[in-house]
Amino acid sequence: MEMKKIVSIMLTLVISVVITGCGSSTDSFENQVKSGNYSNAIEIYHKNIVGNSESENTANAFLQDFLDESLTNYMDGTITEQEFLNRYTTIDKINYEIWTVYDLDWVYQQYLNVKESKESYLIAVEYADKGDFEVAISAFSQVILEDIENYSDAQDKLAEVTKIYQEQIIENAKQLAGTDNFEEAAMCINQASVVIGFTAELETCLRDLVTQKYADSIDTAFGSGDYVTVIREYSDARCDSYVTISSDMTNKYSSSVTNYLNDVSKKAEDAFGDNKDYSAAIRILQVAISEVDVDENVISEIEQKIEFYQEYIPVYLTSLEYTQIARYLRVGAVFGEESDVNGTQYDVDTVIYPTGGSLNSEVASTDDEAYVLYNINLKYSTLTGTIYRPYRSLSSKEQWNTATSVKIYGDDSLLYEAPNITKDTYESINFKVDVTGVRNLKIVMRGVWTESTGWVGMYDRNPKVCMAEVTLQK
To answer: How many other CB atoms are there within 10 angstroms of residue 274's CB atom?
Structure first.
């Protein structure tokens, strides 16, 4: 019996030694954690550490340090992913019992980030070896600083494959540009900029390509005499921040502007001709503006030419301010609608006509009592208009014994005299007078018929003759 007791005691001691280790309780706890024996570690903690604040602090600090060390070891590749997970699981299960480690979730997230980074590194190396640099660059760029094992090497390899990729892109873009495929070349550069960013090398290449595109287009158009295209292309080039304008481009542009304006001017002059067809000339110039509407300087030159021809647009004489007007002449109808004996209507604001006073003797007895004077100041060459018998004169049956008189003077020289209007006149008279060199234009008009107002000795004076829509042209 004594022997059995001794053996039992010895077995208990052996088991205790196995569980607790040969050192202190904290050492035993740490050894069990490192071995992954979380159940033994928990038992030691509850039996031998709880209640001893120093031991508790030591054990708790060890768990935190061991967790941080495990993450660092996984980051730098000292331990495998599985080794890290074994350690993490052990600490997690122990912590479930004693609740001393508070950043387990953060550590696990860091592990996931690094895991993803390591996978990206392997993918990057694989695709770099295949020559698929776009995928490789993207994957190398996803290797994070915390991936200590791969980050530095990933950065070196990223720089290496980026350089190779960029050189290939630039060479490809130049080849495309060499076959006039400038749009594809630009797309190639833009696609590369999405992958590696818009580097100085890519920007320089794009600038060269865009500049060459415009230079070639301008050169071709200039050679074929297509001055409109030269002007438009040069204008677009000036607005493109990637284009370097060369002196050759500028010289071709300047020459094109000169030639284009000369051509347009010649077409306008031919259309204008001896007949002074200002409208045809202006239409040609307006079409020219639509062709070069991107260039304000050229437009300005053309607009000046349009202004020149606009000077030839006829103006109504009555739109000018007269300098003198006699007592018995009126400018601008005051009696509403105006038409001739055939019913043809005229612009009432352009009508000039003789009149008289309300008393029996108040009619013009001389030309000096029935004229209007305009200072046209040598600006015009032609005066045109219509002389007619007004519709209201049809009601005058008896008073045609006095002749009508219409005279046009230029600087006191008689330029035109109209035939007499009688009660048998039904045709209008269209006139055209040369007023070249005339400074003062004078129009004399006489000829009225009288109608009683119903008041004793009071009369209305109505014209037997009118002049309307009198125009001046340069």
So the answer is: 5
